[in-house]
Write a structure and sequence with these properties.
alpha+beta; seven-stranded antiparallel β-sheet; 7 strands; GAF domain-containing protein; GAF-like_dom_sf; GAF
Length: 166
């Protein structure tokens, strides 16, 4: 979490470093949890779609962004994430909230396990912090869930800083 803390300090001093903060959070998650990928997705204004702001894939060390997932296409996922504020899916292909991603997202990317946490601003969802594990099923531990929850709190601070700055 040290990389994320340092990036949060830099972000507080200069809000133009938001992309650096997102990258640091994603890298810290992958390193600490041992997942293949980590990403940050922002909800749109009406909360019926999320768009990736930063996705780190440790398999090749790349960052990407810009993918949008819509509630119209994945209603069971959006229902679960808004209702439960987290999804713990070791076997994502067969989990009721995530099986909708199998053919279009999981299979092409070899994603086997998913761990997601919602970031709230007040009582409204603003973002999703996501861990994905590829190749083999990963049984998420309580420590993994707790760590992602802590990172979601760090990310939540960025929205407070942005609100004060903007």
């Amino acid at each position: 979490m040290e990389r994320a803390r340092a990036a949060l300090t830099a972000f507080r001093a200069n809000p133009d470093t938001l992309d650096d903060l997102y990258r640091a959070i994603c890298q810290d998650i992958v390193e600490h949890v041992g997942s293949s990928r980590a990403s940050i997705w922002l909800f749109n204004g009406v909360k019926d779609a999320i768009t990736s702001q930063c996705l780190f894939d440790s398999r090749d060390g790349t960052f990407s962004s810009g993918v949008t997932l819509s509630e119209d296409d994945f209603p069971q996922y959006f229902d679960a994430i808004k209702r439960d504020l987290k999804i713990v899916a070791p076997d994502a292909e067969h989990h009721p909230a995530t099986s909708c991603f199998d053919e279009i997202y999981f299979t092409p990317l070899d994603i086997r396990s998913l761990l997601d946490f919602v970031i709230l601003e007040g009582s409204s969802p603003v973002a999703v912090l996501c861990c994905e594990h590829c190749g083999t099923i990963k049984d998420w531990t309580d420590a993994d869930v707790k760590y992602l929850h802590q990172m979601s709190a760090v990310l939540g601070m960025t929205f407070k800083v942005r609100a004060k700055a903007g």
